[in-house]
Each structure stands twice: as structure tokens, then as C-alpha cells.
Amino acid sequence: MENRKEGLSFVFGLMVGALVGASVAIILAPQSGERTREVLRDRALEYKERAADFATELREDAHELLEKSRNYYKQRVSPPVPTPEPPPTTEA
After folding, report:
1. Does the pTM exceed 0.90?
2. Could you say which of 3, 10, 47, 65 is the most buried, measured as most Cβ atoms within 10 Å of its Cβ?
């Protein structure tokens, strides 16, 4: 579980680093302002789609983990046993 968190942190950091690097490269590139804005807009849409895909994948993984946890719990924990009712008292 800890390795998975580290892996997700690494992937997230990699995506952020790529976005920052690409943005800096585009801004410093010798081209017109209109072209730069167009490229930035295209890249922003691309990264938005990637982030949505990543979120979907993460959601699916979380759902799968939840189902595995539920199954594990059902196998390991026995259902509660109802307590018997006390016999009725007779008053004489």
C-alpha cells in the first residue's frame, strides 16, 4: 500500500514537472504571442484530458481496493450471533 502511494506521488510529480517544463519552453520559444497562446491552450486541454484519465483510473483502483477490502472483511469476520430472549416470567 505504501509503495502504491509513493508511485502515485511520483507520477503526480512527474506530470506537474512536465507541465511546468513545457510551459517554460513554450513561453521562452521565439514565436508570436498568438501562436504561443494557441499552443498553451492546446497543451492545457491535453493535460486536462490526462488529468481526467488519471482521476478515472485512480477512482477505479480505489473502487477495486474497496471491494477487495469488503470481501476480506466478510471472510474474516463472522456475523453477530443474536442473543436469546429470556424466558417469560410467570407471576403467581
Report:
1. no
2. 47
Please state whether 79 falls in left (phi above 0), alpha (psi between -120 and 50) or beta: beta
- The closest of 21, 14, 92, 87 to 6, measured between CA atoms, is 14
Nearest to residue 51, comparing CAs of 14, 23, 26, 24? 14
Residue-range domain boundaries for the chain = 2-56
pLDDT digits (tens, 9 = 90+) for 33-45: 788 788 888 988 9
> How would you write the chain as a 3-class SS string?
CHHHHHHHHHHHHHHHHHHHHHHHHHHHCCCCHHHHHHHHHHHHHHHHHHHHHHHHHHHHHHHHHHHHHHHHHHHHCCCCCCCCCCCCCCCC
Is the alpha carbon torsion for 82, 71, 61, 13 positive or negative? positive
**pLDDT-wise least confident of 25-29, 61-65, 73-77:** 25-29
